[in-house]
Amino acid sequence: xxxxxxxxxxxxxxxxxxxxxxxxxxxxxxxxxxxxxxxxxxxxxxxxxxxxxxxxxxxxxxxxxxxxxxxxxxxxxxxxxxxxxxxxxxxxxxxxxxxxxxxxxxxxxxxxxxxxxxxxxxxxxxxxxxxxxxxxxxxxxxxxxxxxxxxxxxxxxxxxxxxxxxxxxxxxxxxxxxxxxxxxxxxxxxxxxxxxxxxxxxxxxxxxxxxxxxxxxxxxxxxxxxxxxxxxxxxxxxxxxxxxxxxxxxxxxxxxxxx
Length: 259
Ligand SMILES: Nc1ncnc2c1ncn2[C@@H]1O[C@H](COP(=O)(O)OP(=O)(O)O)[C@@H](O)[C@H]1O
Ligand SMILES: [Mg+2]
Prior knowledge:
single chain, alpha/beta, seven-stranded mixed beta sheet
């Protein structure tokens, strides 16, 4: 199953949610792959620590190979790295990904990631982190995915842009990927004592948006988690946020697609 995490707004928690859900999946014994499609490479840093800057191969090599005119294409498998965590592999990103984007766009390569991922049958779950824009890489990811999770940071500007975002995803669904399903909006950085957080989330629910009913709290512990390159369940398994991530994971994997 391939799950993409997307919101065109930066700083809403895409990378944090991708890595923490993937870490839980791997800890449960599922073979899990994280794909980092953001040139900022935050997810790569989060999973691999400082080793992320010393990788011999990254997703850049995969896309670069696509532009190569040689007929013998390399398999995506060759660019994947193991992580320090059992059952968790990663296809890291690199800042050079940004420069490649225009070349790839002009060569109509949007289906190549999907085709390559279909061959990776050894993984039970693939998590794809995206850059904060609906550009070439995000489009590739939404075409390659079965489902989409939308992180939401309880901000009024973010709330307004959600409608536009869902419209964009629906259009991609219609034009490129009939299988794509929005699994839900993930409320992140929720402050249960702040009236504003409650009000904004209530508005989304009242508008009929598919808000997941496990909210992720605002916690400064996440900074330490990033700094130490330790997803929450490894850093502090009983922390409130770790328990929320686990509850969210379980909700997503509940039978009958109940929210
Ligand atoms: N639940 C949370 N509580 C507190 N800070 C958070 C939380 N989730 C994310 N952040 C912070 O918000 C910032 C953006 O998170 P990140 O996952 O990098 O978002 P994105 O990938 O959407 O840009 C980071 O500095 C991170 O520490
Ligand atoms: Mg990110």
